[in-house]
Amino acid sequence: MPVRSTSLRRLTSSARSTGTLTVAALRMWSARQVLAAVAGTVVVAVTIGVPTVLIPNPVFGREIPVEPWSYPVWLLTSVLAGLLVATYVRPRGAAEPPVDAPAEGERASRAGMAGGLLTWFAVGCPVCNKIVLLALGYTGALTWFAPVQPFLAAAGLALTAAALLVRLRGQVACPVPAVARG
Asked: How far is CA 67 from CA 24, 95, 126, 150, in A?
């Protein structure tokens, strides 16, 4: 029993410190970064929502109705991706970042893009997706791909959230100093 208790305490402590770091990073944001987060959220929501017909439109159509879980996944991914976009915006007056950017930031960027792509596959119509149709056919898309979509959604959310946490942790661990004005 003591092993479980110790592991649970470590996990709780880790989650608490991650939450504290996240809040600290968000509190340091400038109005420019907040605006970028809002704009990024809208752009991602429209980019995913229009072709998947989560936003009804005359250009795209769906043969299979939207699953109820698709809307919260789409909205949550849009918010996380918008926040992730804002982590790449430098506050006004901040110094230039070092030329040798850390590889961790590049991995976070790739994870964020992969998360958005997985979400697009997850919330889209299984038989309207040309890639899936070519790979599996109509019946395969319904039989094999449609049941996997909720798992793709979970993976997409996890990747986007992980990328955001890495970027926010970097902002707190290594903040960009303001430029001295002369």
From this structure: 36, 46, 11, 10
